[in-house]
Amino acid sequence: MKYWYLIVLALLTACIDPIDFRHDDQQEHLVVESSFTNMAGINYVRLTYALPYNYPYNKFEEKASVVITSQEGEQFYFSYDQAGYYYPIDVETTFGISGHTYTLQINVGDKSYRSEAITLKEPVPISQVHFAINERSFALQGDRERKRHMGYQVLMDFQDPVQVRNYYRWSFARQYEILTQPWDFLNDMGDPAPKDCCARCWIQEKEETFTVSDDRLTNGQQVINKEVLFIPFEKYLQTRYKMKVYQHAITADAYEFYRIMGQQKESTGTVFDPPPAEIKGNMRSTSDQGEQVLGFFDVSGVVMQEVDIRADDIPYPVGIFIHPDDCRELPGATNVQPAGW
Asked: Residue 263, Cβ neighbours under 10 Å: how many?
């Protein structure tokens, strides 16, 4: 069923427009999103369901038994948190070792699911994270269409290992200060209704992207200026922006999975687009061979580098983010200043 790539995109990404998806015979399918690495504190499993089009809510699996095991005898148990996310019971001791081979096992009632066995790759060190000012077409959260924004390209330098086929993916965890204008708030009638609080907030969020690369043309070379992210000045860089950049050494199967997902996400939907490619996950039902399971268990060797950007250091006018409301109304925002800020 090639239509299911649309469902996975809807679950794993924040789309600009809702996907118009109508299939009266659509079945409910478990969707697995998981990342397991050599670094403690960033490993997780998320379990959701792909549902019929007319189902009005997201559905999360909250009562699963989740464990990651290795051929070398390791066992890591996960417990439910919220919104479909399962995190390690012992966060600090849950991480993989390069060269070890891992499997994800999920039990839901009398149903059981198992991933393919995946060997954790040796991470590839980051030489440098740096930035370049440029303009990109970008949709801020809540926008229904892309607009041109000035911002920072996030560029990576690293040494690709020689005589080994390498595949890469990047993910990010960011924390930034945001300023809004609650005194300009308008009520539902369009009349001024100023709010007393709050104009200054902080937002912390993760971004799992489909940005991937391989070393087909750069095997054994120093990779310079590889663009992995774009940060618009508007909203994100008003005062200060702290980010952890993760570089993942992934498998060939993971590369192909994320590459196709990225292509489908960026597709414009015109008659000139290639037909949707079939996205092959690596999860299977072990209790019912006829049951289709969606998603991917990603095992990767990861390295991380932190960056701290201050608006005063940007050689370009950043501009003002217009949001005439209490900043706490923004998703994930708090007016409690983070430690170390």
From this structure: 16
